[in-house]
Amino acid sequence: MSSRLSLVRPMALVDAGRNGDSRDSGDFRSPLTLPPTRKPADRRGDDRKSLLRPVVSDRAVACCRPFLDLKSPLQQPVPSENSILRLLHRAAVSVEDAWDRARYRASAAVGRSRPRQIVAYQGYADRDGVWVGGRVLSDRPTGGPLDNDTWWNNLVNTWRRWESDEVPYAPVQVRFGGQFRELSADEEGYYHARFGFDRENIPDDRLSWLKATASAGSEGRQIVASHPVMITPANATCGIISDLDDTVIHTGITSLLLAAKLTFLENAKTRKPLDGVAKLYQALQRGHSAHPINPIFYISSSPWNLHDLLLDFLRLNEIPLGPLLLRDLGLDETKFIKEKGHGHKHRKALDLLAAFPQLPFVLIGDSGQEDPAIYAEIAAQLPHRIRAIYIRDVDPEFDTCRDTAVNRAKQLAEGHGVPMVLARTSMEISRHAESLGLLPMAALRDALPDSV
Fold first, then answer.
1. 8 belongs to a structural domain
2. How many CB atoms lie within 10 A of CB 22?
3. How far is 270 from 151, CA to CA, in rounded Å?
4. DSSP secondary structure letters along 339-357
5. For the chain, what is the mean pLDDT?
6. Does residue 37 fall inside a structural domain?
7. Where are the alpha helices (DSSP H) in 251-370?
8. How many helices (H) and strands (E) does the chain have?
Protein backbone atom coordinates (compact mmCIF):
# COMPACT_ATOMS: atom_id res chain seq x y z
CA MET A 1 0.00 0.00 0.00
CA SER A 2 1.50 3.28 -1.04
CA SER A 3 -0.41 5.77 1.02
CA ARG A 4 0.70 4.91 4.61
CA LEU A 5 -1.96 7.32 5.85
CA SER A 6 -1.71 6.10 9.40
CA LEU A 7 2.01 6.73 9.60
CA VAL A 8 2.88 9.81 7.59
CA ARG A 9 1.90 13.36 6.88
CA PRO A 10 2.10 14.73 3.34
CA MET A 11 4.56 17.27 1.97
CA ALA A 12 4.94 20.26 4.27
CA LEU A 13 3.14 18.58 7.14
CA VAL A 14 6.07 16.23 7.54
CA ASP A 15 8.02 17.60 10.53
CA ALA A 16 5.87 20.78 10.49
CA GLY A 17 4.72 20.67 14.07
CA ARG A 18 7.84 19.65 15.92
CA ASN A 19 9.19 23.03 17.12
CA GLY A 20 12.17 21.18 18.44
CA ASP A 21 14.97 18.98 17.38
CA SER A 22 13.79 16.95 14.37
CA ARG A 23 17.02 15.15 13.75
CA ASP A 24 16.74 11.56 12.70
CA SER A 25 17.69 8.87 15.09
CA GLY A 26 17.66 5.15 14.80
CA ASP A 27 16.95 4.89 18.52
CA PHE A 28 13.18 4.86 18.67
CA ARG A 29 11.86 5.72 22.11
CA SER A 30 8.49 4.47 23.22
CA PRO A 31 6.27 6.25 25.78
CA LEU A 32 5.20 2.86 27.06
CA THR A 33 7.20 1.24 29.85
CA LEU A 34 6.54 -1.71 32.09
CA PRO A 35 7.21 -0.69 35.71
CA PRO A 36 8.76 -3.36 37.91
CA THR A 37 6.47 -4.75 40.58
CA ARG A 38 7.79 -5.39 44.07
CA LYS A 39 7.49 -9.02 45.09
CA PRO A 40 6.65 -9.61 48.79
CA ALA A 41 9.64 -10.53 50.93
CA ASP A 42 10.20 -14.20 51.72
CA ARG A 43 8.75 -14.56 55.23
CA ARG A 44 10.86 -17.62 55.94
CA GLY A 45 14.13 -15.73 55.42
CA ASP A 46 15.45 -12.38 56.42
CA ASP A 47 12.59 -9.86 56.07
CA ARG A 48 15.13 -7.17 55.28
CA LYS A 49 16.16 -8.95 52.08
CA SER A 50 13.12 -8.19 49.99
CA LEU A 51 13.43 -9.06 46.32
CA LEU A 52 12.65 -6.92 43.31
CA ARG A 53 11.51 -9.04 40.39
CA PRO A 54 9.38 -8.03 37.40
CA VAL A 55 6.09 -9.83 37.16
CA VAL A 56 5.50 -11.01 33.59
CA SER A 57 2.87 -13.53 32.62
CA ASP A 58 3.84 -16.76 30.90
CA ARG A 59 1.76 -15.75 27.90
CA ALA A 60 3.58 -12.42 27.55
CA VAL A 61 6.95 -14.14 27.80
CA ALA A 62 5.93 -16.69 25.18
CA CYS A 63 4.86 -13.91 22.80
CA CYS A 64 8.11 -12.02 23.23
CA ARG A 65 10.52 -14.98 23.23
CA PRO A 66 11.00 -15.18 19.42
CA PHE A 67 12.06 -11.53 19.34
CA LEU A 68 14.02 -11.35 22.61
CA ASP A 69 15.73 -14.75 22.43
CA LEU A 70 14.48 -15.82 25.84
CA LYS A 71 15.66 -19.15 27.20
CA SER A 72 13.58 -19.12 30.33
CA PRO A 73 11.04 -16.68 31.76
CA LEU A 74 12.96 -16.48 35.02
CA GLN A 75 16.28 -15.72 33.32
CA GLN A 76 15.14 -12.58 31.54
CA PRO A 77 14.18 -9.04 32.62
CA VAL A 78 11.11 -7.17 31.52
CA PRO A 79 11.33 -6.33 27.77
CA SER A 80 13.10 -3.01 27.18
CA GLU A 81 11.47 -0.08 25.43
CA ASN A 82 13.39 -0.82 22.23
CA SER A 83 12.41 -4.48 22.39
CA ILE A 84 8.75 -3.57 22.74
CA LEU A 85 9.03 -1.17 19.82
CA ARG A 86 10.72 -3.84 17.69
CA LEU A 87 7.86 -6.18 18.51
CA LEU A 88 5.29 -3.54 17.52
CA HIS A 89 7.27 -2.72 14.39
CA ARG A 90 7.36 -6.34 13.22
CA ALA A 91 3.67 -6.66 13.90
CA ALA A 92 2.98 -3.49 11.90
CA VAL A 93 5.09 -4.77 8.98
CA SER A 94 3.18 -8.07 9.03
CA VAL A 95 -0.18 -6.28 9.10
CA GLU A 96 0.84 -3.96 6.26
CA ASP A 97 2.13 -6.86 4.13
CA ALA A 98 -1.05 -8.84 4.74
CA TRP A 99 -3.17 -5.80 3.85
CA ASP A 100 -1.18 -5.19 0.67
CA ARG A 101 -1.55 -8.83 -0.38
CA ALA A 102 -5.29 -8.76 0.31
CA ARG A 103 -5.74 -5.56 -1.69
CA TYR A 104 -3.68 -6.90 -4.56
CA ARG A 105 -5.67 -10.16 -4.69
CA ALA A 106 -8.93 -8.21 -4.57
CA SER A 107 -7.73 -5.93 -7.38
CA ALA A 108 -6.59 -8.91 -9.44
CA ALA A 109 -9.99 -10.58 -9.00
CA VAL A 110 -11.76 -7.63 -10.62
CA GLY A 111 -9.06 -6.98 -13.22
CA ARG A 112 -7.58 -3.87 -11.62
CA SER A 113 -4.08 -5.15 -10.90
CA ARG A 114 -2.60 -4.67 -14.35
CA PRO A 115 -0.28 -1.71 -15.05
CA ARG A 116 -2.14 1.41 -16.19
CA GLN A 117 0.43 4.09 -15.50
CA ILE A 118 4.21 4.47 -15.36
CA VAL A 119 5.36 7.46 -13.34
CA ALA A 120 8.69 8.15 -15.05
CA TYR A 121 11.00 10.24 -12.87
CA GLN A 122 13.60 12.55 -14.36
CA GLY A 123 16.99 10.89 -14.67
CA TYR A 124 20.52 12.23 -14.95
CA ALA A 125 23.97 11.29 -16.16
CA ASP A 126 26.91 11.25 -13.75
CA ARG A 127 30.47 9.93 -13.98
CA ASP A 128 29.26 6.30 -13.77
CA GLY A 129 26.54 6.48 -16.43
CA VAL A 130 22.84 7.29 -16.62
CA TRP A 131 20.36 6.70 -13.81
CA VAL A 132 16.59 6.49 -14.31
CA GLY A 133 13.81 5.38 -11.99
CA GLY A 134 10.05 5.27 -11.85
CA ARG A 135 7.00 3.51 -10.48
CA VAL A 136 4.34 1.24 -11.96
CA LEU A 137 0.77 1.91 -10.81
CA SER A 138 -2.59 0.33 -11.51
CA ASP A 139 -4.30 3.75 -11.31
CA ARG A 140 -5.07 5.65 -14.49
CA PRO A 141 -3.27 8.99 -14.94
CA THR A 142 -5.32 11.90 -13.59
CA GLY A 143 -3.78 14.64 -15.72
CA GLY A 144 -2.56 18.05 -14.60
CA PRO A 145 -4.47 20.78 -12.75
CA LEU A 146 -7.33 22.58 -14.51
CA ASP A 147 -8.18 26.27 -14.38
CA ASN A 148 -11.61 25.59 -12.88
CA ASP A 149 -10.53 23.06 -10.23
CA THR A 150 -12.30 23.70 -6.93
CA TRP A 151 -10.99 23.02 -3.45
CA TRP A 152 -12.99 19.79 -3.54
CA ASN A 153 -11.28 18.71 -6.80
CA ASN A 154 -7.93 19.45 -5.22
CA LEU A 155 -8.79 17.47 -2.09
CA VAL A 156 -9.91 14.46 -4.16
CA ASN A 157 -6.71 14.61 -6.26
CA THR A 158 -4.61 14.79 -3.09
CA TRP A 159 -6.36 11.67 -1.79
CA ARG A 160 -5.75 9.88 -5.09
CA ARG A 161 -2.05 10.65 -4.91
CA TRP A 162 -1.80 9.19 -1.45
CA GLU A 163 -4.03 6.22 -2.26
CA SER A 164 -2.24 5.28 -5.49
CA ASP A 165 -2.05 1.52 -6.02
CA GLU A 166 1.30 0.10 -7.03
CA VAL A 167 1.80 -3.03 -9.13
CA PRO A 168 4.25 -5.18 -7.13
CA TYR A 169 7.05 -6.92 -9.04
CA ALA A 170 5.75 -5.69 -12.40
CA PRO A 171 8.06 -6.54 -15.35
CA VAL A 172 9.45 -3.31 -16.83
CA GLN A 173 11.50 -2.76 -19.98
CA VAL A 174 13.70 0.36 -20.16
CA ARG A 175 15.60 1.57 -23.24
CA PHE A 176 18.24 4.27 -23.53
CA GLY A 177 20.63 5.01 -26.39
CA GLY A 178 20.35 1.59 -27.97
CA GLN A 179 20.67 -0.20 -24.61
CA PHE A 180 17.94 -2.36 -23.11
CA ARG A 181 17.21 -3.42 -19.53
CA GLU A 182 14.55 -5.89 -18.46
CA LEU A 183 13.68 -5.25 -14.81
CA SER A 184 11.27 -6.28 -12.11
CA ALA A 185 9.73 -3.58 -9.92
CA ASP A 186 9.97 -4.04 -6.16
CA GLU A 187 7.07 -4.71 -3.79
CA GLU A 188 6.08 -1.02 -3.92
CA GLY A 189 6.18 -0.83 -7.72
CA TYR A 190 9.48 1.12 -7.89
CA TYR A 191 12.16 0.32 -10.46
CA HIS A 192 15.64 1.68 -11.16
CA ALA A 193 18.00 1.23 -14.09
CA ARG A 194 21.61 2.16 -14.88
CA PHE A 195 23.02 2.60 -18.38
CA GLY A 196 26.42 3.26 -19.84
CA PHE A 197 26.85 6.65 -21.46
CA ASP A 198 29.06 8.01 -24.22
CA ARG A 199 29.50 11.79 -24.18
CA GLU A 200 30.38 11.96 -27.84
CA ASN A 201 28.26 14.56 -29.66
CA ILE A 202 27.09 16.07 -26.35
CA PRO A 203 27.50 19.89 -26.25
CA ASP A 204 30.03 21.17 -23.71
CA ASP A 205 28.50 24.64 -23.37
CA ARG A 206 24.96 23.87 -22.19
CA LEU A 207 22.77 21.38 -20.35
CA SER A 208 21.31 18.68 -22.60
CA TRP A 209 18.24 16.53 -22.15
CA LEU A 210 18.02 13.05 -23.63
CA LYS A 211 15.27 10.46 -23.28
CA ALA A 212 14.90 6.96 -21.88
CA THR A 213 11.74 4.94 -22.55
CA ALA A 214 10.00 2.60 -20.11
CA SER A 215 7.24 0.14 -20.95
CA ALA A 216 5.15 -2.33 -18.95
CA GLY A 217 2.08 -4.50 -19.39
CA SER A 218 1.15 -7.41 -21.61
CA GLU A 219 1.05 -7.35 -25.40
CA GLY A 220 -1.95 -5.38 -26.59
CA ARG A 221 -2.18 -3.58 -23.23
CA GLN A 222 1.31 -2.16 -23.06
CA ILE A 223 1.87 1.29 -21.56
CA VAL A 224 4.86 3.50 -22.33
CA ALA A 225 6.42 6.50 -20.58
CA SER A 226 9.46 8.70 -21.20
CA HIS A 227 12.20 9.62 -18.71
CA PRO A 228 13.85 12.99 -19.39
CA VAL A 229 17.59 12.54 -18.68
CA MET A 230 19.68 15.58 -17.73
CA ILE A 231 23.24 15.63 -19.11
CA THR A 232 25.65 17.96 -17.32
CA PRO A 233 28.18 19.56 -19.72
CA ALA A 234 31.91 19.34 -19.16
CA ASN A 235 32.09 23.14 -18.78
CA ALA A 236 29.61 23.38 -15.88
CA THR A 237 31.00 25.62 -13.13
CA CYS A 238 28.92 24.37 -10.16
CA GLY A 239 25.98 22.25 -9.18
CA ILE A 240 22.96 23.47 -7.20
CA ILE A 241 21.17 21.37 -4.59
CA SER A 242 17.90 22.90 -3.42
CA ASP A 243 15.12 22.03 -1.04
CA LEU A 244 11.53 22.68 -2.20
CA ASP A 245 9.16 23.44 0.70
CA ASP A 246 9.53 27.09 1.75
CA THR A 247 12.69 27.28 -0.36
CA VAL A 248 11.06 27.26 -3.79
CA ILE A 249 7.35 26.72 -3.13
CA HIS A 250 5.47 28.64 -0.45
CA THR A 251 4.36 26.08 2.13
CA GLY A 252 3.71 28.07 5.30
CA ILE A 253 5.65 25.68 7.49
CA THR A 254 5.41 28.07 10.44
CA SER A 255 1.61 27.72 10.49
CA LEU A 256 0.19 24.21 10.70
CA LEU A 257 -3.26 25.38 9.54
CA LEU A 258 -1.86 27.23 6.53
CA ALA A 259 0.40 24.31 5.65
CA ALA A 260 -2.60 21.96 5.72
CA LYS A 261 -4.66 24.27 3.52
CA LEU A 262 -1.90 24.66 0.93
CA THR A 263 -1.14 20.93 0.94
CA PHE A 264 -4.67 19.54 0.70
CA LEU A 265 -6.78 22.25 -0.93
CA GLU A 266 -4.43 23.81 -3.51
CA ASN A 267 -2.87 22.51 -6.72
CA ALA A 268 0.19 23.18 -8.89
CA LYS A 269 -1.54 26.19 -10.50
CA THR A 270 -2.74 27.83 -7.30
CA ARG A 271 0.37 27.18 -5.19
CA LYS A 272 2.77 30.13 -5.20
CA PRO A 273 6.56 30.21 -5.55
CA LEU A 274 8.70 32.39 -3.33
CA ASP A 275 9.26 35.86 -4.75
CA GLY A 276 12.04 35.97 -7.31
CA VAL A 277 12.92 32.30 -7.10
CA ALA A 278 12.42 31.59 -10.83
CA LYS A 279 14.75 34.43 -11.91
CA LEU A 280 17.31 33.52 -9.25
CA TYR A 281 17.46 29.84 -10.22
CA GLN A 282 17.59 30.70 -13.93
CA ALA A 283 20.59 32.93 -13.20
CA LEU A 284 22.33 30.28 -11.08
CA GLN A 285 21.75 27.71 -13.81
CA ARG A 286 23.35 30.01 -16.42
CA GLY A 287 26.21 31.31 -14.27
CA HIS A 288 28.41 33.33 -16.63
CA SER A 289 27.21 31.42 -19.70
CA ALA A 290 24.69 32.49 -22.31
CA HIS A 291 22.89 29.15 -21.91
CA PRO A 292 21.81 26.98 -18.95
CA ILE A 293 24.98 25.12 -18.00
CA ASN A 294 24.82 24.24 -14.28
CA PRO A 295 22.70 21.29 -13.08
CA ILE A 296 20.02 21.79 -10.42
CA PHE A 297 18.88 18.93 -8.20
CA TYR A 298 15.86 19.20 -5.90
CA ILE A 299 16.14 17.10 -2.73
CA SER A 300 12.97 17.14 -0.65
CA SER A 301 11.41 15.23 2.23
CA SER A 302 8.18 15.14 0.24
CA PRO A 303 7.13 11.63 -0.83
CA TRP A 304 7.32 10.27 -4.37
CA ASN A 305 3.51 10.39 -4.44
CA LEU A 306 3.79 14.15 -5.00
CA HIS A 307 6.21 13.93 -7.93
CA ASP A 308 3.65 14.96 -10.57
CA LEU A 309 2.41 17.94 -8.54
CA LEU A 310 5.94 19.25 -7.92
CA LEU A 311 6.99 18.77 -11.53
CA ASP A 312 3.87 20.60 -12.76
CA PHE A 313 4.60 23.40 -10.29
CA LEU A 314 8.15 23.91 -11.58
CA ARG A 315 7.00 23.96 -15.20
CA LEU A 316 4.08 26.31 -14.63
CA ASN A 317 6.26 28.80 -12.76
CA GLU A 318 9.20 28.67 -15.20
CA ILE A 319 11.55 27.38 -12.50
CA PRO A 320 14.45 25.44 -14.04
CA LEU A 321 13.81 21.71 -14.18
CA GLY A 322 16.09 19.19 -12.56
CA PRO A 323 15.83 15.70 -11.10
CA LEU A 324 13.48 15.51 -8.11
CA LEU A 325 14.99 13.31 -5.41
CA LEU A 326 12.12 12.60 -3.05
CA ARG A 327 11.66 9.85 -0.46
CA ASP A 328 9.79 6.62 0.00
CA LEU A 329 7.40 6.49 2.93
CA GLY A 330 6.19 3.34 4.64
CA LEU A 331 7.42 0.32 6.53
CA ASP A 332 10.16 -2.17 5.88
CA GLU A 333 11.88 -4.86 7.89
CA THR A 334 14.43 -2.56 9.49
CA LYS A 335 12.69 0.75 10.19
CA PHE A 336 9.31 2.40 10.48
CA ILE A 337 9.87 4.85 7.61
CA LYS A 338 11.99 3.55 4.76
CA GLU A 339 13.80 6.82 4.17
CA LYS A 340 13.70 9.09 7.18
CA GLY A 341 13.13 12.70 6.18
CA HIS A 342 16.27 14.68 6.93
CA GLY A 343 18.68 11.74 6.91
CA HIS A 344 17.47 11.17 3.36
CA LYS A 345 18.48 14.73 2.42
CA HIS A 346 21.95 14.36 3.91
CA ARG A 347 22.60 11.00 2.26
CA LYS A 348 21.38 12.00 -1.20
CA ALA A 349 23.32 15.27 -1.14
CA LEU A 350 26.51 13.37 -0.35
CA ASP A 351 25.68 10.88 -3.13
CA LEU A 352 25.45 13.75 -5.62
CA LEU A 353 28.76 15.21 -4.49
CA ALA A 354 30.36 11.80 -5.00
CA ALA A 355 28.70 11.39 -8.41
CA PHE A 356 30.08 14.75 -9.64
CA PRO A 357 33.55 14.93 -8.06
CA GLN A 358 34.69 17.70 -10.42
CA LEU A 359 31.89 20.11 -9.45
CA PRO A 360 31.64 22.43 -6.44
CA PHE A 361 28.10 22.83 -5.16
CA VAL A 362 25.80 25.54 -3.83
CA LEU A 363 23.29 24.37 -1.20
CA ILE A 364 19.94 26.17 -0.80
CA GLY A 365 17.36 25.49 1.92
CA ASP A 366 15.23 27.20 4.53
CA SER A 367 15.22 27.80 8.27
CA GLY A 368 11.93 25.98 8.86
CA GLN A 369 13.37 22.51 9.32
CA GLU A 370 16.83 20.93 9.46
CA ASP A 371 18.44 22.30 6.29
CA PRO A 372 20.96 24.55 8.11
CA ALA A 373 22.23 21.70 10.30
CA ILE A 374 22.36 19.22 7.40
CA TYR A 375 24.18 21.60 5.09
CA ALA A 376 26.61 22.69 7.82
CA GLU A 377 27.48 19.06 8.49
CA ILE A 378 28.14 18.49 4.78
CA ALA A 379 30.32 21.61 4.74
CA ALA A 380 32.27 20.28 7.70
CA GLN A 381 32.77 16.94 5.94
CA LEU A 382 33.65 18.32 2.49
CA PRO A 383 34.47 22.03 2.83
CA HIS A 384 36.39 22.17 -0.46
CA ARG A 385 33.27 21.04 -2.36
CA ILE A 386 30.79 23.68 -1.10
CA ARG A 387 30.94 27.22 -2.48
CA ALA A 388 28.11 28.66 -0.38
CA ILE A 389 25.02 27.79 1.66
CA TYR A 390 21.89 29.94 1.37
CA ILE A 391 19.10 29.60 3.93
CA ARG A 392 15.71 31.22 3.34
CA ASP A 393 14.39 32.89 6.49
CA VAL A 394 10.84 31.52 6.93
CA ASP A 395 9.92 34.08 9.60
CA PRO A 396 12.01 37.20 8.89
CA GLU A 397 9.80 39.46 11.01
CA PHE A 398 10.64 37.58 14.20
CA ASP A 399 13.71 36.51 16.13
CA THR A 400 12.96 32.87 16.97
CA CYS A 401 14.66 29.64 17.95
CA ARG A 402 14.99 28.92 14.23
CA ASP A 403 17.41 31.85 13.92
CA THR A 404 19.40 30.46 16.86
CA ALA A 405 19.65 27.10 15.09
CA VAL A 406 20.81 28.81 11.89
CA ASN A 407 23.47 30.74 13.82
CA ARG A 408 24.82 27.49 15.31
CA ALA A 409 24.96 25.92 11.85
CA LYS A 410 26.55 29.08 10.45
CA GLN A 411 29.36 28.90 13.01
CA LEU A 412 30.04 25.27 12.09
CA ALA A 413 30.05 25.91 8.34
CA GLU A 414 32.10 29.10 8.47
CA GLY A 415 34.53 27.42 10.87
CA HIS A 416 35.40 25.24 7.86
CA GLY A 417 35.58 28.17 5.44
CA VAL A 418 32.10 27.80 3.90
CA PRO A 419 29.87 30.91 3.99
CA MET A 420 26.26 30.48 5.14
CA VAL A 421 23.81 33.32 4.48
CA LEU A 422 20.40 33.65 6.17
CA ALA A 423 18.51 35.50 3.44
CA ARG A 424 15.18 37.31 3.53
CA THR A 425 14.97 37.82 -0.25
CA SER A 426 16.16 36.37 -3.54
CA MET A 427 18.08 39.58 -4.16
CA GLU A 428 20.20 39.01 -1.02
CA ILE A 429 21.17 35.58 -2.34
CA SER A 430 21.93 37.03 -5.76
CA ARG A 431 24.23 39.75 -4.38
CA HIS A 432 26.20 37.29 -2.27
CA ALA A 433 26.51 34.88 -5.22
CA GLU A 434 27.82 37.79 -7.30
CA SER A 435 30.48 38.51 -4.67
CA LEU A 436 31.71 34.90 -4.99
CA GLY A 437 31.77 35.03 -8.77
CA LEU A 438 28.91 32.57 -9.12
CA LEU A 439 26.86 35.18 -11.00
CA PRO A 440 27.86 38.17 -13.12
CA MET A 441 27.63 41.50 -11.34
CA ALA A 442 24.12 42.96 -11.16
CA ALA A 443 22.76 39.71 -12.60
CA LEU A 444 19.25 40.31 -11.27
CA ARG A 445 19.27 44.06 -10.73
CA ASP A 446 16.91 44.70 -13.63
CA ALA A 447 14.86 41.56 -13.08
CA LEU A 448 14.13 41.90 -9.35
CA PRO A 449 13.43 44.78 -6.99
CA ASP A 450 15.44 44.87 -3.75
CA SER A 451 12.41 43.73 -1.74
CA VAL A 452 12.05 40.44 -3.64
1. no
2. 16
3. 10
4. S-HHHHHHHHHHHHHHH-T
5. 78
6. yes
7. 256-265, 277-286, 307-316, 341-355
8. 10, 14
